[in-house]
Amino acid sequence: MTFAWLAFFDALLAITMISVGIIGAHFYLVAPFMGFQLFALGFLLSILGSLIGLLAIFLTRKPQLAAGRNRALVGTVICALIAVPMIVIVLGSRKYSPINDITTDFDNPPEFVYAQKLQPEPNRDMKYDKAKYADRQQAGYGPIGPIKERLSPSDAFARVTEVAQAIPTWKITYSDPATNTLEAVATSKMFHFNDDVVIQIRPTPDGASLIEMRSKSRDGIGDFGVNAKRIKRFFDRVALARGPSDQNTGDQEEMP
């Protein structure tokens, strides 16, 4: 009977931890990473509850222990409904490299200017670490290069700014037309994780512009592919923003 109660208790505790983690982070009651840790704890409890529940189901197989068996079944089912989808997600995330800083240029990446002031850790180093990240990015995502626009740098910067302003989960924090540099904070919808984004427009010898971009997470060592997807989706938005006269003038550049 003890294992049956324990499985049921684990199920309730797992639901509580997951709910507190999501609700707490979403409504800014706890820090995003703390909310995620509570969520992860609930996930681990659901795995533990599933194992204990299976054991309890076996131990309560006799008719006189039917009450405990029902409790064990309920706890096991609840835990399994939480654990199985999360296990699938976790296994699927293994394809992503342990990296949370993605750039379109390894040798001359856009560097953050204002983002340093927004970090929870005041002395956090925001410089790009090529030795640490470049090989992992190539192995995990292949070439992620800038896009080329047949516009002057100032016109390309105006287009990039307009596109960035239209993204509901972004907040522009820094804009410098003199250097054609824009920074933003991208906030995730559930846990409200904050990622820092910097975009820089660079002139090309033929009078066009390269849009270079970098996206960096503030928490954790991995990002489930979020930063790479953010860059690619932003470039897609830029391409969609082209007028009829320049729909076919953008080119994707590949990293060497």
Written description of the protein model:
The model has no long low-confidence stretch (mean pLDDT 93). This protein is an alpha+beta fold and 256 residues long. The chain has two domains: 2-93; 101-252, Alpha-D-Glucose-1,6-Bisphosphate, Chain A, domain 4 (2-Layer Sandwich). The longest helix is centred in the first third of the chain and has 28 residues, at 32-59. Helix 1 (2-26) runs antiparallel to helix 2, helix 1 (2-26) packs across helix 3 and helix 2 packs across helix 3 (66-93). It has helices spanning 2-26, 32-59, 66-93, 130-141, 153-165, 226-240; strands at residues 101-103, 147-149, 170-176, 181-187, 194-203, 209-217, 251-252. The chain is 47% helix and 16% strand. Strands 1, 2, 3, 4, 5, 6 and 7 form a seven-stranded antiparallel sheet that branches.
